Every structure is written in structure tokens, then in C-alpha cells.
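Feature request, filed as a ticket because there's no other form

It would be nice if the structure record came with a short human-readable summary line next to the C-alpha cells. Right now we just get the raw output. Example of a typical job, pasted below so the devs can see what we mean:
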Amino acid sequence: MPLQSLQDYNTPGNKRFLLGLVGQGPALGAIVRVLEREDFVKAFPRVKVAGWVPPASGGDDAAVPAALQSQHTFADVQSMFAARPGIDLALDLSPDARHMAELRRHAPPQTTLAAASSILRFCQAAEDGKLAIGGGESLRKAHSLFALLVDQMDDDVLIMDRNGVILDINRHAAESRGVPRSSVIGRHCRELDASFPCCDEEQSCPYNEARETGKKADHIFTQVMPNGKVRYLHTFCFPLADPFGDPMQFLFIRRDVTDQQHLEQRLQQNEKMAAIGELSTYMAHEIRNPLFSIGGFANALLRNTSLDENAREKARIIFDEARRLDVILTSILNFARPTEQTMGIFEPETVARQTMDLMTLGGEERGIHAHTIIAPNLPKVRGNAENLKQCLINLVKNSMEAVNAGGHVTMRLARSNGQVVIDVEDTGPGIPPELHDQVFSPFYTTKKGGAGLGLAMTRKVIEEMGGKVLLSSQQGQGTRVTLMLPAALNIDEGN
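Raw output as currently delivered:
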């Protein structure tokens, strides 16, 4: 075992790289074997063991290297750091990282902490000859490769034991939460993401599934962010058999697939649109003519004075239902056709005020408070003012139907990054996360008698104007639909 003089142990920043070992397990023997290898000593002469804290309950003395049964042994972590303040790297050698919390409390600021799993992987590669240690070149290449493949990934990567304790974590997972790695290692995964959907006992957890089955598990979760938007997270969990015989460990990867999900939804929407186009052509030829006849005969019966009131009521129901079907058919045909948009330059605040003036009267009768907030100096937008007005009517109407008496519906107009942003927000019950994908789908509706084309048509019109539609909603906290319209350039106005 490579040792050194006492003064080197007590000098932070010395030319040695000092190790502090805590606990006992397969990692202890593994690291001692590597440190005593002749090629390792030649390649890394600065690496030295400065102290070891054996487990409080004792252990198998025969498994303890003789070099550690000396003045390098300390009763506890605090004593080791008091005697050896110059330690550069402290290793928790217990399989379950049980000493990590104590290490965090007593380690000097310059000391790096690591769990046994990281040391085991290094030692395994070194002892199997996978790392040609001579000169240290292959070791540096191996570390660079690990950093490239794991530490630089934009996904969260964690290694956990069978109890859900985090043994290691990559840089992205730590930095995205604003915490240092050392503060995470040794904690339970629930402490890292207590609000994450897979931590809900009612949800399927890939980690639990992989632990129970011993096979890879994956699941896509939806998570509502504080701003009400939904993101999609694909989580994978792979069981890892420890080559040193420790309990099985697990590689957990969490990947944000929100953009991919939106792309897939858009492709599905396009497929639906193509099917609607074919269906609408058939409906126009095969359904509208007999529907017109049904409505005409029902209207004639209503004008027939010889019918009693009971018969006239039945005829009225037939006529009303035929008219309702005609409205739905017209909506489908209009939705399937390209929207007729005569593009022009107009002031969005004028359209907003007209919409709210039109919708406010009906809202006041139901005790709904309507508000319009318009930022000053808004640019004009390029598009079709009447089509935008119809979109805003749809959104305000939906919001007013979602709130009860005393509720609020607010339309806000602002400017952001060269765009005019129009928000229609209500204080209704909100939309469950699992329904966020469906509200813009054709024919999806929660309203009795609705066709389910209002929001789908709104998205279609806004996107044809070069804009974008976003949804933000949380249950119990209302819903906000945002229209983002590109501002008209001066050159568009002929200036």
C-alpha cells in the first residue's frame, strides 16, 4: 500500500492526490488491488491512501488489507478529516452509500466525494485489462469517452441500488436541478423528484418494474409544468448485474420527448385531415341531398294545420335535428377545405375589442366578469381579421362555458420577440393533463351536441396565418390558450 509522510497528509493542495476510504465491501479490496499494482504505481505515483474508517460494527478482519491495519485507521469520518485535512477524494465503499451523508457533513470544501459503484466500475476495467494503465493514456481516453457519452448527455442519467438510493448521477441531472452531485448521491430517488409522476403510487414506475422483473422497463409520463404546459418524459430503467457480486444496480435514464410527441401528434392530425377530406366529399354527395329532403318535409308538416300538437312536436324535433346535422356537415366541409383567407394588415387590438364587446353581454347575464388588457404600441399583424375574430369568439365562448357565475375571462394582448401574443384565460376547472393532446383534435368535444371542431379550426386558421397556438392548463387553476401571430414588417405596410 503506497504511504507517505505525515506532513503531506495535512497539507491541502500538496503534490499528492490523497484518498480517504470509508466503510467496507467489495470495493475496498478492489481499490487496494489496483493501487498496489506495479503499473498503476508507475503511472500514478501521486495517488496515495491517507486514511480509512472501518464500519462501526466491525467486519471481516481477514478481508482488511494489512496496510490499512495501522495508523491509517480512524474511528470515524470526523477524526479522519481532522487528522488528514488534505484529502482530495473521499470514497464511500459501502454498497448502499450509507456513509455519504456523514461525508457531506465533515468533508472540507476541496474534497470530492464518490460512491462505491463508480470505483467498482473503474477497478473492474483495470483488473480485466480493459484499461492499459501504463502511462495513463488509456485511462484518460476511457474517462473522456464516459464524459462524452454520459456526462454531456441532455438526458438525466442515474445509477441506483435495489433500495432506490442514488449511487451516481450525471452532470445534466444535477445541474438541471441546481444541486451539486455530492448532495444527491446517497439519497433516495424520491428525494430528487418527489413531484415526478412516476413517484405517484398509482403510476407505473419503470424502476420498480425493472427491479421486480429483472428486465428493461420504460414508460412515457406527462408532467404539468408550473406554467401549465405539459411536457413528455420517456423514462427507461435497465438492470445491471454487478460483477463483484453486489446486489443488482439499475441504470435510469429520463429523456424529454416533448418535441417528438408534438411532431407525432401533428402527423396524426395531418392523417386525420386527409381522412376528413375524403369523408367530406362523400358526405357532400351522399348525405346532404336526403338530409335536405328530410328537413323540407319536416318543415312542410309543421305548416300543416291539420296536425295535432303531439304530431307537430315530433315534426319539430325532426326539423331541428336535420338542421343540426346540416350545421355539423357544413362545419366538417369548411374544416376540410383550405381556409379562404384574404391576407391584409390590421390592428389586432381592434379585433380583440370587437370580440369582447360582442361576447360581454352574454357573459354579464350569467354573472361572468370579462376583462381586456392590451399593452400599448402593439404592432400590426398580417392575416385575415375576420378569421382571427372568429377564432377569438370560439376561445372566449369556450372560456365562458367553462366558468360559473362569479368567474373571470380575460383577454390579454402583448408583444414578445417580434410577435403579437393573444391570451384568452379563464378561472374554470382546468383540463386534465391526459386530455391536453385531444382538445385540438377534430371531433373531440365534452359539450353535449358539440361538433368538436372549434379549437381544431382555430389552430388551422392561426397556423395558415403563420402563427402558433399553445395550451396551458392545470386542474383547479383554469385554462389559458395563447395565439402567437407574427408582427407585420414595415415593408408589408409599404413604408
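Something like this underneath would help us a lot:
The radius of gyration is 34 Å.
Residues 1-8, 130-136, 491-495 have pLDDT under 50 and may be disordered.
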